[in-house]
Specification:
Layout: E1 5-11, E2 14-19, H1 20-42, H2 48-75, H3 80-83, H4 98-115, H5 120-138, H6 140-144, H7 186-207, H8 216-232, E3 241-242, E4 247-248, H9 249-268
Antiparallel strand pairs: 1-2, 3-4
Helix pairs in contact: 1-2, 1-5, 2-4, 5-7, 5-8, 7-8, 8-9
């Protein structure tokens, strides 16, 4: 397997290991932001807003990803963060959840849009397909860390997982020998799904440009990301389940995402009407203010 540490910087008594996970994640983030900038410029807005917003989005995303992981683990019966609260900020020890990054990142983006008087739908639609690409590009980091794998499989693309990275269900090496046991590479399934989903969104965007309304790309992301993760969750025995339902918390949120995307689509095309909602925007609002 690949060593998760690329190299270690030593300065006196201080050592700073450089992990593949961090390098891959940051590279994927920069590529996704660059693509989002191009999308924002193509729609007539100042692309610099993407990089300015990233100053808010990246820290918010990391905090959200960590907190979601902690809550999810605690709901699953892991008492580490209850008994040792300082472990919550021990991010180098591992433990991030992409849904927390989505939630906190969206909140930060909402704040940024309000501050600079930008069209939130415009920002969300610019990020939506490129976020799928960024997610996909980051998934090889999970292979290096030997994490986010599924149940044992005899399929030819199953991957080996060493003893130190086995979850409790598969830690008995007499039942699941290192030499012969292979596992579903669920991170790879999600990577493939995200690339295909991004390709579909870009195809629809360019093929039916005149019919695509504000918010449709974001709704499409919610639907495709939600459905994809819901399917992949069926291969994830490590995820805590909602008592009595046999459904993981992540699966439930994924289904909610897909449902929310469908509702947004129906609202945008005025198939459903709800008095509590404003009329859907017919076009984006391009800002006239310059970034200072």
């Amino acid at each position: 397997m690949i060593n998760p540490i690329i190299f270690t910087i030593h300065i006196g008594s201080f050592s700073w290991p450089i992990h593949w996970y961090g390098v891959i994640l940051m590279t994927a983030t920069v590529i996704a932001a660059w693509l989002a900038e191009r999308e924002l410029r193509r729609r007539g807005e100042n692309g610099e807003h993407i990089w300015n917003a990233a100053v808010w989005l990246i820290p918010a995303g990391v905090i959200g990803a960590r907190l979601w992981f902690v809550v999810n683990a605690s709901l699953g019966g892991n008492l580490l963060y209850v008994e040792q609260p300082l472990q919550i900020i021990n991010i180098p020890a591992g433990g991030l959840h992409i849904f927390g990054a989505f939630l906190f990142g969206t909140i930060a983006l909402f704040y940024y849009a309000r501050r600079y008087k930008l069209d939130l739908w415009l920002l969300l639609d610019s990020f939506a397909p490129t976020l799928l690409i960024g997610q996909a590009l980051a998934r090889p980091a999970n292979f290096i860390n030997q994490e986010l794998y599924g149940q044992p499989t005899t399929l030819p693309w199953g991957i080996p997982i060493d003893a130190d990275h086995r979850i409790a269900a598969y830690s008995d090496l007499s039942l699941y020998p290192i030499a012969t046991t292979r596992f579903h590479p669920t991170f790879a399934y999600e990577m493939i799904w995200n690339f295909l989903a991004a390709a579909l969104l870009f195809y629809l965007l360019y093929r039916f440009a005149a019919r695509i309304k504000p918010g449709v790309m974001f709704a499409g992301w919610l639907i495709l990301a939600g459905i994809g993760r819901s399917i992949i969750e069926q291969f994830r025995p490590d995820q805590p389940r909602i008592p009595g339902l046999g459904l993981s918390y992540t699966n439930a949120v994924s289904l909610f995402m897909a449902l929310a995307g469908i509702v947004i689509l129906l609202w945008q095309y005025e198939i459903i009407h709800w008095s509590l909602l404003p009329n859907p925007p017919a076009a984006y609002k391009i800002s006239t203010e310059h970034i200072s």
